[in-house]
Amino acid sequence: MRNGLSAPPNREIGFSGGPARAGRPTRPTLAAMRLGYLTHVTGDDPARAYRETIELAIEAERLGFDSFWVAQHHDGHLGGLLGSPLVLLGAIAQYTERMRLGTGVIALPLEDPLRLAEDAAVADALSGGRLELGIGAGADADASDRFGRDHDERHEDCLAALDRLLELLPGDEPQSRIWWATGRPETVDAAADRGVGLLSGRRGEAHPEVAGDLARYWTYCHGTPRVALSRPLIEDESSTETLVRWAEDPALPWAGEIVVQAQPATAPTARHREVLRRVADEIAPRLEEPNGIRPGRERLSATRSAT
Fold first, then answer.
1. pLDDT tens digits, residue range 268-287?
2. Residue 292 CB coordination number (10 Å)
3. pLDDT tens-digit profile of 93-117?
């Protein structure tokens, strides 16, 4: 079913008649977990916030992070200053070489899919093919009103806009670069039907249903299932406690990446730098890797040995 709004009838067929993916994923622990970083780009002065975000991205890549994400907020919602994340990612691309660059996330119902596809293509070209396009229905009712959209229809509008976006984006498999931020079971099913990745901010201990949603997504996803978990680094929590919390999260077995963010979302740049370094120094080296070291760690070790 193309609309993907109904759960699959059984585990033998996928949403559109394709084969189901049986069993659990191959990552049942923190092994091989990629690490990303998300900032909401806040502050008192937009120009300064944008410059400092570029500097944070440079630092994140130097420290070995796999991806760097910026959140979209319209008219200062929740303190965010970035209404056009692809513009800032285009700038960040000029100062980074390896790290994936993502939008976390663009409120798709407020966008013209054709305009977004063109802007995304430019940002992707500037980054050398490193763009990860995170989208969602949006939670800012005031923004919907300012854009002349019906906030109550945002989920249906998001689905329609996504289908149009998939038609417009260049390349053979545009869905492989799109991430859908959602916690609604029917939208999880729609993401599986379209083969796009999932961004989940729901913590398993608070939302026990999330593991079932992600398991269903993994089973029926068209193409390679991709799940990234957005998780805050709690200020008064030790690194050991953070690792235990992540390892015990029921959503973890279905994820390939954890996208870390500072608390609160309006944290100053100094706090972001502290979180970046704490993850790099105390958390990343302790992830359960077969060779005991994360991708990117070797370059970081070499850099520090030389200083």
1. 999 999 999 999 999 998 88
2. 10
3. 999 999 999 999 999 999 999 999 9
Contact in structure between 46 and 81 (CB atoms under 8 Å): yes
* Residue 169, both tokens: 């984006």
| pLDDT digit string, tens, across residues 231-278 | 999 989 999 999 999 988 999 999 999 999 999 999 999 999 999 999
Q: What angle do CA 192, 131, 204 make, to 5 degrees?
A: 45
- Indicate the pTM of the whole model: 0.85
Domains for the chain: give ranges and CATH numbers.
34-306 (3.20.20.30)
Nearest to residue 248, comparing CAs of 191, 305, 203, 293?
A: 203
